[in-house]
Amino acid sequence: MNLYLIAASIVLFLVAFLIGVKKQTWLLSGFNQKRVKNQDKLSKIVGFYSLIIGIVMLAGGIINYPNSETMLFLIMAMGFIALLGYVNTKMVE
User: Fold this and answer.
1) What is the DSSP letter of 66?
2) Is the model's pLDDT at 31 over the cut of 70?
3) Is there a contact between 54 and 16 (Cβ–Cβ < 8 Å)?
4) What are the alphabetically sorted keywords of the record (predicted)?
5) Measured at the alpha carbon of residue 59, what is the angle toward residues 6 and 77, in degrees to the nearest 5?
6) Cα within 13 Å of Cα(68), Cβ side
7) What CA dihedral angle connects 8, 60, 74 and 90, to 10 degrees?
8) Any idea where the domains of the chain sit in the sequence?
9) What is the dihedral of CA 81, 52, 41, 43, to 10 degrees?
10) Is 77 exposed, middle or buried (CB count within 10 Å of its CB: 0-12, 13-18, 19+)?
């Protein structure tokens, strides 16, 4: 059992709840809130992605595959960078 991945998954579940359900988009950095066309869609996309990555990290923490920490954090970072690129190209005025 990898406690680092389990702790990271709890943080991601919290982020998914705050952004996806409570619509707290001010927690997101890297964009100007006034320039985003559809903040509801932004919160749904980021909340859903955070939930999926949280589930994957929780499963990785329980399974305890060797070197899963590095691999999962890399996948998470690449996904958030791709998400940032999508938001900045498609959803920002």
Assistant:
1) T
2) no
3) yes
4) Membrane, Transmembrane, Transmembrane helix
5) 70
6) 18
7) -80
8) 3-91
9) -80
10) exposed
Radius of gyration of the chain (CA): 14
> End-to-end CA distance of the chain, in Å?
45
At residue 32, what is the residue type? N
Q: State both tokens at 18.
A: 């705050």
At residue 24, what is the residue type? Answer: Q
Tell me: the pLDDT tens digits for 14-28?
999 999 999 998 888
**Scanning the structure block, which residue is given the tokens 């994957």?**
56
Amino acid symbol at 81 = I
Tokens of 60: 């990785």
Of these ranges, 9-13, 32-36, 37-41, 64-68, the one predicted with the greatest mean pLDDT is 9-13
What is d(CA 88, CA 32) in angstroms, rounded to the nearest whole number?
10
- Render pLDDT for 40-58 as a digit per residue (tens, 0 to 9): 999 999 999 999 999 999 9
- Rounded CA gap, 87 and 41, in Å? 10
